[in-house]
Task: inverse folding
């Protein structure tokens, strides 16, 4: 082993690992962050090229300054610079049409999204959501929750909108408790979607700067091969370059990857069974570049009866593209149970282009460049009942002392990237 002894070695430099390293370094801990990729950010990484900021998919941050990501940066004394999106035009795609996205109960009363009787039924249901105890519904689906008192087929189809707020658009699949918990938080926030200026670049750069400012070390392009355990205690890591001793070892990656660096035999069978059966979401994201604006939409489009989300990125934040270029990002979740082949991404791309042409006639002929990403993991953990908050593993490993888990597959508040940020906050508060 090296002579250097760290208070904590953190494996993985996604939002969770970067946040934990920054927070612990700020506390005066000696921290080493190890990342196998040459880039920081994990599933939020970015590339700067020819004046573009290319992100790995889309990364908004729920509830802007009132959200969980903002708590990390406030703690570090480096608040996120959010673009003020109030007044931006956002739409829902439902039943083959675009509709202005309501942001309040009053907004629903003036929408054409649902027939009047269905709208009243939905609003009654929504009021119930805002008063319900989420803990009573983590183990049931959103569709189950609705059918306790309602049976309108229009409303059942429209529940996909509520499910998509936690990135699971199928109301028969998403945990009702997760949706309830998020919507109750969202109802209190004036801004529902936060757009950091410069995209994920701003967050990653600020976290890296905070780590280095407080004396933390970052080793990129270095792969952890083994978490070292002595007599049931995690004592460090072996990488493809060196050995490092540490008082704490933090695994900051999706938990299914844990057993590539530790044997399953160290853990209780229920934990192994849970981790090996975690279901992530998959998707396709396509950045389309134009030489001129193709729409004046300044928000985005969210699919209700299809798992579609669209961000007109350079309309929101011109800094992500060079002068005279315009970037729109269209993405679609794939069926998590479909085979991992090129057929599903190809079909999704064709469907996206048909929708583009339908909603913005003539735009496909004006594409000057496109970048397609097949995303084998959008979220490491789909928020189904079996993977909802009460069932996810704690950040403190019960089987191996001084081993901790953070990231979007552990038991922490929120959904998607919010789980990563909140788990880092919990870790910093527990060490």
Result:
């Amino acid at each position: 082993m090296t002579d250097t002894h760290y208070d904590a070695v953190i494996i993985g430099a996604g939002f969770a690992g970067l946040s934990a390293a920054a927070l612990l370094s700020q506390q005066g801990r000696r921290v080493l962050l190890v990342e196998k990729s040459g880039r920081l950010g994990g599933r939020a990484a970015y590339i700067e090229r020819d004046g573009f900021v290319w992100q790995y998919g889309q990364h908004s941050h729920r509830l802007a300054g009132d959200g969980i990501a903002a708590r990390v940066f406030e703690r570090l004394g480096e608040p996120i610079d959010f673009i003020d999106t109030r007044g931006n035009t956002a739409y829902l795609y439902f039943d083959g049409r675009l509709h202005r996205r309501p942001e309040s109960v009053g907004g629903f009363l003036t929408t054409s999204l649902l027939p009047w009787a269905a709208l009243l039924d939905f609003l009654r249901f929504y009021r119930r959501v805002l008063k319900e105890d989420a803990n009573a519904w983590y183990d049931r689906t959103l569709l189950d929750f609705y059918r306790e008192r309602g049976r309108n087929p229009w409303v059942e189809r429209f529940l996909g909108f509520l499910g998509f707020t936690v990135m699971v658009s199928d109301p028969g699949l998403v945990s009702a408790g997760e949706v309830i918990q998020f919507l109750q938080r969202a109802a209190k926030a004036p801004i529902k979607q936060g757009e950091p200026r410069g995209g994920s670049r701003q967050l990653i750069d600020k976290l890296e700067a905070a780590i280095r400012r407080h004396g933390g070390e970052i080793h990129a392009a270095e792969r952890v091969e083994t978490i070292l355990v002595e007599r049931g205690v995690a004592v460090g890591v072996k990488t493809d370059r060196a050995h490092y001793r540490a008082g704490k070892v933090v695994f900051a990656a999706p938990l299914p990857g844990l057993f590539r660096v530790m044997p399953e035999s160290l853990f209780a069978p229920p934990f192994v069974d849970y981790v090996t059966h975690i279901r992530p979401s998959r998707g396709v994201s396509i950045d389309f570049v134009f030489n001129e604006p193709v729409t004046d939409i300044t928000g985005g489009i969210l699919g209700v009866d299809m798992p579609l989300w669209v961000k007109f990125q350079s309309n929101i934040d011109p800094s992500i593209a060079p002068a005279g270029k315009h970037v729109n990002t269209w993405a679609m979740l794939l069926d998590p149970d479909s085979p991992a082949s090129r057929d599903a991404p190809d079909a999704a791309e064709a469907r996206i282009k048909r929708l583009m042409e339908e909603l913005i006639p003539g735009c496909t002929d004006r594409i000057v460049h496109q970048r397609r990403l097949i995303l084998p993991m959008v979220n490491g953990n789909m928020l189904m009942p079996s993977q909802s908050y009460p069932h996810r593993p704690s950040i403190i490993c019960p089987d191996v002392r001084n081993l901790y888990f953070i990231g979007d597959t552990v038991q922490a508040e929120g959904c998607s990237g919010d789980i990563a940020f909140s788990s880092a906050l919990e870790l910093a508060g527990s060490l």
User: Anything to note?
Assistant: The chain has twelve helices and 19 strands. The chain has three domains: 5-59+199-277+384-430, 104-186, 282-375.
